[in-house]
Structures are given as structure tokens and as C-alpha cells.
Amino acid sequence: MASPTPSSATETAPAPPAPRAPLTETIRVRLRAPARRRNTELGLLLFALALAGGALALVQLGALGHLAGTMMLLSGLLGLFAIAIHVALRVVAPDADPFVLPIAVLLNGLGIAEITRIDIAEGLVGWDAAGVRQIAWSAIALAGALAVLLVIRNHRVLLRYRYLAMLAAIVLLLLPFAPLIGKEVNGATIWIQVGPLSFQPGELAKIALAIFFAGYLMTARDSLSMVSVKVLGLRLPRPRDLGPILVIWALSMLVLIGQRDLGTSLLYFGLFLVMLYVATGRLSWVLLGVVLFGGGAFAASRVLPYVENRFAGWLDAFNPEYYDAFGGSYQLVQGLFGLADGGLIGTGLGRGHPGIVPLAESDFIVASLGEELGMVGLFAILALYLLFVSRGFRIGFTGQDDFGRLLAVGLSFVVALQVFIVVGGVTRVIPLTGLTTPFLAAGGSSLVANWVIVAILLRVSDSVRAQPRWVVEEGRS
Amino acid sequence: MSELTLLLLQIAFLMLLWFFVFVIVYSLRSDLFGQRAKRLPDRAAGTFPTSPAPAPAAAVADPAPSREAHRAPPLQSDATPRRLVITSGPREGMEIDLPSEQLTIGRSSESGLVIRDDYTSTHHARLMLWNDEWVVQDLSSTNGTLVGGEKIDRPTPVPERTPVTIGTTTFELRR
After folding, report:
1. C-alpha closest to that of A252 among A286, A217, A211, A300
2. Are A373 and A349 in contact, with CB atoms under 8 Å apart?
């Protein structure tokens, strides 16, 4: 086996799948190249942890004037969790992408720093402080990601459970309607509460939906992409193939009307539409979907008072009528004032007034960060998201199986769309919705869901790179 | 802490934040600008003795018996090619087993088959198995992909033993 097998030597078949490279080369590929990726990751991870720690220290220096030991200690412990994931990756996924983990860690750390800053402004300490709870949730989320990495050794296993994933998604979506545990907060029925813990099951539902869509589209893509009828020069799908898109449309309209949550509804439908487009490569699906959702949202804005309020507060935010109204544009406008106060380089961490904005630690974390880090800092954060999403698309692009490709693209697109919906809402590009900013915003369910996405992306990228590779290059020995 | 110190710390923090972004972008430069082409050394320099490629003559010179041999023990019932043999180019004679679903070809080190020369694009082409038939798709490469000498502009089936040319490398699919 140590020598390559020319074809004439395989005459006496059954030819075993002999390695086409000499033993030494195999060892080199196995040992050295993966370690290089992980070393890159370790360097970036330490850098990210230093930056996150620096942000927390600056927050305390700016707002309190001195360093507070407890928060630093807790965050340090969290840093150890992140390093534990890195060590686990060295063992269970040595070829995984080296950039995803440090980016997610840095975003999470910046979030914790800014949430702590708002706790200081509101005088919250101990378990009341959202920052402390955020650290606890981050620890749970990191442990969850670690568990996913350890349990799922091959992402194709998920393909087997695609219908189970669909069922899980529907159950998770309906859970807030269940008696006893369901809870309505600010008009939206998207929470469940068990004892002191509250959770948004819809966050996890998006992962389950991505798994189901990837599995379904993998088998259905041919019938959805090949067959078409031509109407007015546009290649439209056959009426009988419209079933799935109508089902998803109905589902997202149900979320819109039943749970009164515009953002989540948009997120699910957008996820399906993009995965459908990636699977079939047909623009007509996207056009159809945009028309369907646009029509639905327009009708909803006419009929449902809460959607109507959101639209009015968006289009005419500075009108005193909406500014003073309950549930009006006060929050949005205060966020804009905060961003304006931040200017180019910000007021400095811990030295702005982000606490004025209602829900500054969750829905408006972007405005808070924008105020204290300024446009320069906010764009750095957006660049981090861009890099994260581009890595995800990259993992999808180089994927070796359809399921993994669709899954990676779907999951990273969910993150991208969520960032767009939140940042667009806060900056008044689109109507404000109640979604969380991935990794940054206070909220356990969102953190857990996004870290599971990180784990799945790492797993898929490992299997991509673990594929055998052959190199044609003269002078290589 | 004076205002000035805090301002300087703030600016230093923002610079470090952007530095982090650019470190990642720098590590990704091959993704953004494509893999750097390596100038191929002269064929006369003769790296073949040290190269791990099988002897080129063996694969090309005597294909017929090999085919017979494969036919004799019916390993696979279908007629789908399962090997890719490089028939000309720097690694002439190299032979690889085709993966189960698809093989990406390009200069990127993430490709299934990495071809590093001046004429190959970062993501050049891919071979896909469609209904037990291998199909090659050109991924908008700069210099194109030739199947049987014809430049392709759409996914094209690759019959067994049809030369496919990418850059300076030509390969065939064989059973």
C-alpha cells in the first residue's frame, strides 16, 4: 500500500481502494495540514477573547471608573468554555473551518460587554442583571454546541431525521399556544415559561426547518426545477408543484397572525425561498415567493392593528402622534438618537446613554453598540457578520453532498437575514420587528440556537475538507 | 481615569477590532483573489522520479488489458465510470477513484482535484453524477473546459474514455 497503484497493477481485481499517495504523504496530510487550521483558529480565538475582555474592561472603566472583579471572572470562565470547544475540535473535527468559532466568540463577548453596560446604567446586579444571565446562557449555549459536535459525527445523519425535524419545528412553533407554559410578552405569543426560565422555541425551530428544507429539496429539486409552463415569456412552475411553497406561506402567515410576530414570519419564509432558489436555480420561485409574502404582509398591515402600527411608526417615526403612542415609535426614535449621538467613533464604551432606549439590551443592542462604538465600531461588527455568513456560504459551496450544501447555505442565510431584519429595523430601513441580533442580543434561546448553527457549520465544513484530495502540481514531492 | 485616556483607549479598541477583521480577511485572501498560480518548472527538470504519481506509461500505454480485466470479474453491475485517469499534463498517469456524488476541480485547495497551473481557475469545473452518468459543468472558468476537444457552455455528459481538458491537464473517465 505504500506505493501508488498504476492501473495495470489493478488487473487482478477486486481492486481495493488503495491510497494513491505514498504513506508518508498520507501522514503529512493527516497530521500537519489540519493542525495548521486549528492553530490559526487558536490564534484568532485568543485574539477574540482578548478583544471581548478589553470591551468589558472598557465598559467598567467608562461607566464605573474602576474594574469590577466578578464580571471579569465570570467572562474568563466563559473564555475557558470557548477554548474547550477549540480543543474538542482538534479531536473530533480537525478539518473544520477555523474562522467561524473566533467570530462567534467575539460577537458573543461584545454582546456581553454591552449588556453589562446597560445593567450598570439601570443599576442591576446579581441574578437580576441581564449580563450575568447572558453569561450563564452563553455557557449553556457553548455546552450545547459542544454536545452537537460530539454527538453528530456526520451531518448526513440529520438527513434521516428530516421529517422528524419538520414535526419538531411545528411542535416548537405551536408550543407558545400551549396552556400553562405559553406566555404572551408585549403582544407576541412566542414565549414559553417553565419556572424561572423563559424560552423562545421559535429560535430552535429555524434550525429544524433548515434541516427539513434541505432534506426535502434535495429529493424534490428535480421536479421543482426541470418542469415548467411558460406564461408570458416567464417560466413558471406547474400548479401542482406549488404545494410546498403554499404550505410554507400558510405557515408563515399563521405565525404572522397567530403569534403576532412579523420578523419570525419573514425569517421562515425567507429561509425557504432562498433554499428553494439555491436548490433549483430558478428566479421564478423567488418572484412568486416575494409576491406571495408581499401580498400577505400588505393585507396584514391593513387588517392587523399591530402590523399597521409597525408600518406607521416606520414610515412616519417622528410624528408626535406615533412617537407618543403606546407601542409607537418612541423606542425606534430613541435608538436613532443614540446612533446619532455616537457619531463616527462613538461616545466610548460605558460613556453613552444607551439605557434610555427601551429594551436596549435585547432588541436594540445594535443601537446601543452603535452609540458607544460609533459607526466605525458598528461597521466592524457588520463586517464580522459578513465574514461569518461568507464562511457559511463557502462551506456550502465546497460541500460534497447536496444535503450538506443546502443545509450550510440555509443556516448561514438565516443568520444573514436575521441581522438584516434587526439592523434594518433599528436603522429604519424596514419596519421594526422583534427579532434578536444573533450572538449579540440578550436572550438565551437565540444564543443556544445560533451556537448550534455554529456547531453544524463546523461539522459540515469538517466533512468537506476531510474529503480525499488529489493535487496536480509539478514539483510537488 | 481621565477623559483623554478613555478616548485613547476607545480609539485603540476600535483599531484592534478592525485589525481582527483584517486578520481574518488576510487569512482568506486566497478565497477573495483566487489561489496564487505557481510557475511550473520545466518538464526537463524531471520531478517524476520523486513524485508520488504512478509511472505514466503504465496507465496510458496499455489500457485495453486493464479494461478486459475489469470486465472479467463483474464488480459493478452498472457501466458508470469509477476512475479518473490523467492522460496528459504534469501528473500524467495519475489515477484516482471517483467519489460517490461529485468531484470539484480547480486551483483552490478545497477542490476535490486540485490542479495548480496558470490556466486553471480557482473553482474551475465540477463532475457530477446524474442518473449514473458523469456530467461535467464548467463553473465560469476563465479558460474553459474542453470535452472531446469542444469547449462546453452547459453541463455536458462525459462518456467513458472521452478526453476532458482543464488547463494543461487532460483526463478520462474509466470504469
Report:
1. A300
2. yes
Does the pLDDT value for residue A94 go beyond 70? yes
Cell triple for A77: 470562565
> Is the bond preceding A201 in cis, omega lying within 30 degrees of 0?
no
Distance CA A231, CA B70 (A): 51
How many other C-beta atoms are found inside a 10 Å radius of the C-beta of residue B16?
16
Rounded to a whole number of angstroms, the distance from the CA of A293 to the nearest CA of chain B is: 32
Residue with cell 445560533: A450
Cβ–Cβ below 8 Å for A10 and B66: yes
Query: DSSP letters of A232-270?
Result: TTEEEPPGGGGHHHHHHHHHHHHHHHHS--HHHHHHHHH
Contact state of B16 with A380 under an 8 Å Cβ cutoff: no
A296 to chain B, minimum CA–CA distance in Å? 37
For A300-311, the pLDDT digits (tens) are 878 877 778 888
Q: How far apart are CA A131 and CA B144, in angstroms?
A: 55
Residues in chain B: 175
Give the single-character DSSP code of B164.
E
pTM: 0.78
**Cβ proximity of A54 and B15 under 8 Å:** no
- Residue A88's pLDDT is 93
Q: Where are the alpha helices (DSSP H) in A152-200?
A: 157-160, 162-174
Any CB–CB contact under 8 A between B59 and chain A? yes
Of A1, A7, A12, which to mutate for an interface test with B (greatest number of B Cβ within 10 Å)? A7
Q: Which residues pair with B133 in a beta bridge?
A: B130
Instruction: Yes or no: say if A415 and A389 are a contact pair by the CB < 8 Å rule.
Output: yes
A108-135 per-position pLDDT tens digit = 999 999 999 999 988 887 778 888 989 9
**B153 has a chain A CB within 8 A of its CB:** no
**φ, ψ of residue A199 in degrees (nearest 5):** -150, 145
CA gap A456, B91 in Å, rounded: 36
Q: Which of A6, A346, A472 sits opposite B10 (nearest CB)?
A: A346
**What does the alpha-carbon distance between residue A161 and residue B157 come to, in Å, rounded to a whole number?**
33
Helix, strand, coil percentages, rounded to 5, for chain B? 25, 25, 45
Q: Is A380's Cβ below 8 Å from some Cβ in B?
A: yes
